[in-house]
Amino acid sequence: QVQLVESGGGLVQPGGSLRLSCKAYGLSLEYYAIAWFRQTAGKEREGVSCISSSSDGPTNYADSVKGRFTVSKDNAKNTVYLQMNSLKPEDTATYYCATTGERLDASGTYYCDYFEMDIWGQGTQVTVSS
């Protein structure tokens, strides 16, 4: 069965850190780019970060998380991680991972982008509060 399973969410104080995991089953992350999204009630879903399928994984970050969040992957564990540091109350949301599309740039490098999100995880809740 093809699925993505997120874990690692929880309650953390402002300024704290969490590491989210997105483990893939039934598909190899060597061939899929993965994106992280977050959503809160009443707000549009926001693309947070993505990582391409290639081994050196070009990455992308939303302006709201640049310098605080880091996406990485371990192909041996078939898992993508989102390390979240210096968390703020506005980071509170349900975080989802999903497969996403890639585009080819002029140099021949594939980079991830937010389209054709075909497979989604169930989400993990992150709450940043004192």
How would you describe the overall organization of this protein?
With 130 residues, the chain is an all-beta fold. Helix content is 0%, strand content 48%. The protein has strands at residues 3-7, 10-12, 18-25, 33-39, 46-51, 59-61, 69-74, 79-84, 93-100, 102-104, 110-112, 124-128. It has a six-stranded mixed beta sheet with strand order 2-12-9-4-5-6, with no helix packed on it. It has a four-stranded antiparallel beta sheet with strand order 1-3-8-7, with no helix packed on it. The mean pLDDT is 95.
Key attributes of the depicted protein:
single chain, 130 residues, mainly beta, 6-stranded mixed sheet, 4-stranded antiparallel sheet, 0% helix
Count, helices:
0
Order of helices and strands, N to C? EEEEEEEEEEEE
Major beta-sheet overview: 6 strands, mixed
* Beta strand count: 12
Low-confidence stretches: none
Instruction: State the end-to-end distance.
Output: 39 Å
Spatially, the strands of the biggest sheet line up as 2-12-9-4-5-6
Outline: globular
Roughly what percent helix? under 10%
Radius of gyration over alpha carbons? 14 Å
What average pLDDT do the residues reach? 95
Strand residues, percent: over 45%
Helix and strand composition category: mainly beta
